[in-house]
Amino acid sequence: MVVELQHSTFKNLKVFITGTSSGIGHAVSKAYLERGSIVYGIDNKNNKSLNLQFKNFEFHNCNVQNYKKMSLIVKKILKKSKRIDVLINCAGIIDFKSIEKSTIDFWKKIIDVNLTGTFISCKLIAPSMKKNKKGSIINVSSRAAKFGGLDETAYCASKFGIEGLSRSLYEECKKYNVFVNTITPGTPIKTSMSKKTYSDEKRKIWKDPYLISPAFLHLGVQTKSVINNKYIDAWQLTKKIKHKYKLN
After folding, report:
1. Structural element, H or E, at residue 109
2. 3-class DSSP state for residue 93?
3. What is the value of pTM for the model shown?
4. Which is catalytic among the residues 32, 40, 67, 155?
5. CATH of residue 30
6. Residue 202 has pLDDT above 70, yes or no
7. Segments of the chain assigned E as strands
């Protein structure tokens, strides 16, 4: 099973991932690339480590909320590759302000990256998946999509919005064999965002984001046991299925 999953299921799978320069996006990209998938990475900066390590990584410099540029990138990829099998929206930002201190520009910045960026990727890629009658869309959510947080009105709104977007997109895509799920880390993860937000206690137990990559792999190549229209705890799912996905 492990050999089959590592070499056959993922080989030449075409995966579009946003936020690939760091954190979860970088870790998940690496997990797919190691298995022979072709990854199209989107970020507004490039740390170049994936480019240097993998020939099957294609980087595009872009802000995810830039619809015009994102549209050109996706059109170019689809013209060349004919399909995108998996879409993973990892790009996101966080900041904290009380409602009094939250300016319109502050609000717009958080919503534009987290929610509008996710919408744009889905808008551009979901139609091709529907046409091919195959695909998996994985939108990174958060605990903040279920519970309010102090001084997090903008961030929580963006993540609650991702949940609503995903639930509705599922209804639109379900008859086309396109899966739509949201996913939250489920455990403290060491990223550039968490360095900014985590307490000292959480920093003591935070984990490398690569350790939750099996959950993203599993959702991308579902076959028999279909997970669809769910809010997934990546840590819990990884513990259940990690024996299928050998990590380097």
Report:
1. helix 104-111
2. coil
3. 0.93
4. 155
5. 3.40.50.720
6. no
7. 14-18, 38-43, 57-61, 86-89, 135-140, 178-184, 231-233
